[in-house]
Amino acid sequence: MENTPVSYDQIVFEISDRIATITLNRPDKLNAWTAQMDQDVRSAMAIAEADHTVRVIVLTGAGRGFCAGADMSLLQGIAFAGEPTTGARSVLGHNAAEMGKADVRPDFQRKYSYFPSLRKPVIAAVNGHAVGLGLILTLYCDLRFASTEAKFSTAFAKRGLIAEYGMAWMLPRLVGHANAMDILLSARLFGAEEAARMGLVNRVFPAETFLTEVRAYALELANSVSPRSMGVIKQQVYNAMFQTLEEATMASEEAMVSSLQSDDFKEGVAHFIEKRAPNFTGN
């Protein structure tokens, strides 16, 4: 049973089987990013985060593209005017995310880096071109799955721009220094298989069955894994990027004590012993 909690102008937002799916919906423009789309996605993410029935969030694109980057009309306006317009500032600005939480690092509360602040896993289902800002969006997702028809590019150097929105920090951590320098400096277009080889995407699925495969993975997380565990583990992994081994170990020891006292831990043991499907509550 599908539920569309809110109707948006430039995305489609659906909740079904514990999965919230956000589909960028400007297929005639390869889902090029606009100020309105930015607002729509942020709103849908906040609703999915607050909905206790949602366990996993999937971000994808309608038609042939995932997201072809910032809408060229915004870039043209900046090039001709010499400074960003009001609409461009909304897309290109550096304001902190409105859904920020006290227990989340400021690093993950910026304009496009707020996905890690959500306690629910965010999966990028890259169905087509993910270029420039579109590629940045995938970097801040927790998992990236690509269709065999997906294409990737940083694009910035070919537009006279630079590595934006923390990409110079995030990209090397995913693909390594050498690969990051290559795709940033050359701004070349590359395919899904190469993206998988360098570690940019987790898996590549055939275009014909792509969304079915992604949804099957999301369903496995939604139905078989403790949502509490996913939230804590996600926070651990992102915090560890800034911690020493000692700090990460100490934090994990504290988190383990809390986990052992949780309802999900009791259910995790019970369903294993009783050989039945789990019924995690997230508590």
What does this protein structure show overall?
The protein has 283 residues and is an alpha/beta fold. It folds into two domains: 11-223, 2-enoyl-CoA Hydratase, Chain A, domain 1 (Alpha-Beta Complex), CATH 3.90.226; 226-273. It is built from eleven helices and ten strands. Strands 1-2-3-5-7-10 form a six-stranded mixed beta sheet, with helices on both faces. The longest helix has 16 residues, at 35-50. Residues 91-98 have low confidence and may be disordered.
Topology, please?
Blueprint: E1 11-16, E2 19-24, H1 35-50, E3 56-61, E4 65-67, H2 72-81, H3 86-92, E5 122-126, E6 129-131, H4 133-139, E7 143-147, E8 151-153, H5 167-175, H6 177-186, E9 190-191, H7 192-197, E10 203-205, H8 210-224, H9 227-240, H10 245-260, H11 263-273
Short summary:
This protein is an alpha/beta fold and 283 residues long. The protein has helices spanning 35-50, 72-81, 86-92, 133-139, 167-175, 177-186, 192-197, 210-224, 227-240, 245-260, 263-273; strands spanning 11-16, 19-24, 56-61, 65-67, 122-126, 129-131, 143-147, 151-153, 190-191, 203-205.
